[in-house]
Amino acid sequence: MFSRFIVATDLSPASFAIVNCLGGLRAFGAKQCLLLQCLNFQQAASTALSYTTAPLEGILGQQKEILEKLGFEVETKIIPGFAKLEINRVAAEENYSLIVVGSQGHSMVGEMLLGGVASEVIHSARKPVLLVRIEMKEDAGNACVQAARCDFSEHVLFPADFSENADHAFTYVERLAADGARRITLLHVQDKARIDPHLTHRLDEFNEIDRGRLEIMKERLRKQGNAEVEIELCYGSPFDEITRLVRERNVNLVVMGSQGRGFVEEIFLGSVSHNVARHADASVLLIPAVHRGTAGNAGETNARSFDPC
Question: Percentage of the chain surpassing pLDDT 90?
Fold first, then answer.
């Protein structure tokens, strides 16, 4: 499924933690990796004045060795330019199937790549993006960085809003099931903000309809592999319920479409999926929307955003 993937690195301790965590991708068919470092123009100029990239190449070589020991074929590349543009450009032009970046706790990590740029990468990506969760821990009085819940196939959470993009993202969950995911939880949250107060009398009706939808998805997953599949139907804030389940159920990987029912909300307020990517305690796999490029389709998506169930 993700046979060729890019690891966006800034050579920081956080990026080493990410690299050490990626052995779990082999279960999903990952074989070839590009370790990509982007230098902004100030860094590129500084490197040019020193007449050598040897120090950078040496650190990249260490990360390459780690990935090779995990069983991947690895290429390294250092390129000038804005990371948010170059990462997505290389992924598209060279047909990589996944972009891997890092995130920590309640904010994106690092100053150059794994900070605001990581957020911008997921907003503009046309390829799936895996945000690997990083934790800061104290070890003998010293702060250390390590990746969290690296066995991505142990417990997968799929929050479904039944939008067109969620349907597209679910095809990836089916492939995860076929590749050996051991436990999958299907979640739908009845959004209190959309239902309360005028539609609360129809909540039982919505629950019945949506439980039926989840049962159909569960049956599709059963046909793909041997995963234990559970259904959760909640009422409240989608963001709150998703992050609560991640904490309480020890979820390793959340799979979400990066644009759900409300395209206007995605642009102006920030989507549920991107907020989960920033704040959840698990790694998050964001599947980009299928962009059709027509006003008619955009209008259809906006219309669906008013569907409460």
Answer: 54
